[in-house]
Design brief:
564 residues, alpha/beta, seven-stranded mixed beta sheet, disordered N terminus
Length: 564
Amino acid sequence: MTTASSQNTEQPMPHEATEAVQGYLPPSGWSIVGARSAAELIAQEEIEPTSFRSVDPSTGRPSAMLYRAATDHQLDETARLAWEAFYANEGKSPRARGELLDAIAEGLEALGDGLLQLASSETGLSTARLAAERERTCATLRLFAEVAREGSWVEASIDRGSPARRPVPKPDLRAMLRPLGPVAVFGAGNFPLAYSSAGGDTASALAAGCPVIIKGHPGHPGTGELAARVISQAVARCGFHPGTIGFLHAGGGREIAVGRGLALHACVRAIGFTGSLQGGLAVQEVAQSRPDPIPVFAEMGSVNPVFVLQHAAQQQGEVIGDRLASSVMNSVGQMCTCPGLIFIRLAEGAEDLFRSLSDRFNHADPAPMLNARTRDQLVQRAEQFGAVSRLEMRAGAPTRPGSPDAIRPITGSPALYRTTFDVFRSQPTLHEEVFGPVAVLVTCRSDQEMIEAAGLIQGSLTGSIFAAGHDAAMSRRLSQILEMRVGRLVFNGVPTGLEINDSTVHTGPFPSTSAQHVTAQGTRAIVRWCRPLAYQNAPDAMLPPELRDANPHKIRRREDSVWV
């Protein structure tokens, strides 16, 4: 494990204290390869690693800290250690996995404000937003600790044999979900805690018994490393194999090489990805090109359409507009559930909603985006919108490109566009995600146009309907259409703000995800890292504890078609 002693002390982080505060120690700048220092491996390789720095979006200045991207040798060593850990940890009980996840949550909390300040300096997100994100991350870890301990998630079933059955003896069959093996997790840019090193992918994979290799995100390398260090320390403290967790810095032009190397490595058996459609499809293509293709569970983008029905607009147009504006601009529009399309029936109350939206967008200031690449992609989408006839910017301002020679804040501006259903129907670019504080208001002249609009929606994580009492029939028609196109259907509310529990569904048809039959969040996320395995006429001692007659873990299971 990389320790603070390997840090380049000549390059302190601008905000760091000289001593640990609340358990916080600054990042080292090195990857975490089992129990060994990546710096030690580099010395053995006798090469100069690729170096890079993070950038503070609020100022545009690079950090003083130098990070070293993982080499091919480090990647191979990490993957091999994860393979060893998979078998070495096989005897670990569900209770032990739960204790590991609880220890990780405690470690993240012990980092105190130092972690939040570092994450803020790397992403431009406020420390208040990041504090809430850490709370959600720790809650997710503890939720999966309970899932692991309770154990019924394995879906154990027993159908006892009957040798005396005629004309053919009945075999003894027992089945359950078994872990796939080491999982590679690609850290997300917009959630440095909840979707990165210690996020939901890692928590669910560890709960299932899968070691995890984290591809660090180059936008927040220090935050990712610190969270991974917490996991590594918990792994050692709880007596798990050191290869249970690995962390690979990926920046300085090494992003694609590290990602491709993980997707192709024989020891990696599944991938969790959160990012762009282009990135997700690229990872999936590589993973499918292997001699033994592996599953990629990718969350790739979403337009999150909102439909405001006639009577809802009449009764609450101004309130709905205010709520939608807050949701669109939440975290500068850099959340996977921010609404990007708003459909409204032209009738009494529609202008109240439009004025409310416009006022909020006109009074919103530009704010730091995650990084220059995200800002530049937003600028590109604004240019595409500018080429669409009869699509008008009605509030806010377009995001301006950055100057390549100037050090200045990397900001994005909220922008509200307005058009008609006819234009929306004819312009495919309006059907695609805009990642940033941008929304398109589409006016519909009839209920039929609203219904046709719903039928044009691409697969999305969420769909929302604002309806009042007299909108019931129309609401039912829209919901029937949207059920085929979204993973979560929201009524009279905004899609941002995801509650994590047993009923959470965070997935959707393509292109929002690569696998709509599973969820990336909530307790059901654990089944992504498993496959069903049956044991026929196996001696009791050869069975996993969950399938033995004595049921030593006391889990709920189905025995001869009866829940026990």
